[in-house]
Amino acid sequence: NAQPVTVTVTGAAGQIGYGILFRIASGQMLGHDTQIRLRLLEIPQAVRAAEGTAMELDDCAFDRLESIEIFDDPVKAFDGVNVALLVGARPRGAGMERADLLAANGGIFGPQGEAINAGAASDVRVLVVGNPANTNALIAAQHAPDVPVERFNAMTRLDHNRALSQLARRGGVPVRDVRNVTIWGNHSASQYPDVFHARVGSRSGAELAEDRTWLTEDFIPTVAKRGAAIIEARGASSAASAANAAIEHVRDWVRGTPEGEWTSAGVPSNGAYGVPEGVISSFPVVSRDGEWQIVDGLEINDFSRERIDASVAELFEERAAVEKLGLV
Ligand code: NAI
Question: Whose CA is nearest to atom 38 of ligand 1?
């Protein structure tokens, strides 16, 4: 790859930032043949901390890392960006109402979308990690009318990977022998991890799902509530695994998914599987020639239908709330 790639990471001084920057710079996201220009975006109070992380990046002497720049201005940080990882977000404070949370994040993702619209490279790809990821991605996309909406994704890859691991354990097989799990809907507790089309070693996910008690009382809640379980155990939220998921999402988006396998990503709905247009929802996807395609033709049983619909309904509720605030 002759052209260096400009990668902007927001929230760069945060936990996920600390997990992801070194992996990007070492070539794990875009390949070892690609030179990286890293841009770190932070709020002014955290610029000093980002400078510390940049010192450590220097000290790795990564030979693929061409430059590191630090900004507190999104317009500058996104100028010429090829890959934007929107990690920094406003966490829900104690006693904060959902509308306040959505409004605070609108104040971040609206201007970032505008800055991407104004200055990004024509091939820009945007992955929103900061929560509420799907709705933040929708807000950013709506503020970037000149960028194809398909270039805005929300991350559900961590949920997908959690589901792969849980299934491997259940089936007693290595995780590499599990494939074609799907996360549907919102990256929230309402998400639906679907095993019905999965392969788990020599068995089918549908066969494992015959044990409905396991499915509804163990597997689904374990995947959907894994973030809370990690906070409870670690005293801090999942950061290394979130960084890993973001690396894998972008890698597969740019370089393609393996033949015969799909992954999960929050992409703009297009009516597929009865999910109306207008939200960024998680679907089974493959990537070909740098673009996601929603896997078609999967049979959706009643069990799945009900759960997909519930999570999608939540996405439309979030959409209605931000519409009311004038954010989309
Ligand atoms: P953190 O609190 O350690 O770091 C967030 C960083 O973002 C802070 O350094 C903060 O200064 C910065 N920031 C806040 N507003 C900003 C702005 N307007 N521009 C640039 N930077 C800004 O949080 P952590 O653990 O790194 O998580 C980041 C986000 O990722 C959270 O919203 C979290 O909920 C979300 N997350 C999403 C996951 C997913 O699967 N989609 C998984 C795990 C976390």
Answer: 129
pTM greater than the 0.95 cutoff: yes
What residues form the annotated binding site for NAD(+)? 11-17, 105, 112, 129-131
Q: Tens of pLDDT along the chain (328 residues)?
A: 568 999 999 999 999 999 999 999 999 999 999 999 999 999 999 999 999 999 999 999 999 999 999 999 999 999 999 999 999 999 888 888 888 899 999 999 999 999 999 999 999 999 999 999 999 999 999 999 999 999 999 999 999 999 999 999 999 999 999 999 999 999 999 999 999 999 999 999 999 999 999 999 999 999 999 999 999 999 999 999 999 999 999 999 999 999 999 999 999 999 999 999 999 999 999 999 999 999 999 999 999 999 999 999 999 999 999 999 999 9
Q: Are 263 and 282 in contact (CB under 8 A)?
A: no
11 lines ligand 1 (CB under 6 A): yes
Domain ranges of the chain: 5-154, 157-318
For residue 131 and ligand 1, the question of a CB distance below 6 A is answered with yes
Measured by CA distance, the residue closest to atom 30 of ligand 1 is 130
**157-318: CATH, from 3.40.640.10, 3.90.110.10, 3.30.200.40, 3.40.720.10:** 3.90.110.10
What's the full length of the chain, in residues? 328
Does this complex have an ipTM over 0.90? yes
C-alpha to C-alpha distances, 75 to 14, 87, 97, 318, nearest whole angstrom: 20, 16, 30, 27
In the CATH hierarchy, which top-level class contains the domain 5-154?
A: alpha beta
CA distance 90 to 87: 10
Distance, CA 87 to ligand 1 centroid (Å)? 5
Annotated binding site for substrate, which residues? 92, 98, 131, 162
Residue 254 CA to ligand 1 centre (angstroms): 23
Whether 187 is in the pocket of ligand 1, judged by its Cβ within 6 Å, is: yes
- The answer, yes or no, to whether any atom of ligand 1 lies below 6 A from the CB of 130, is yes
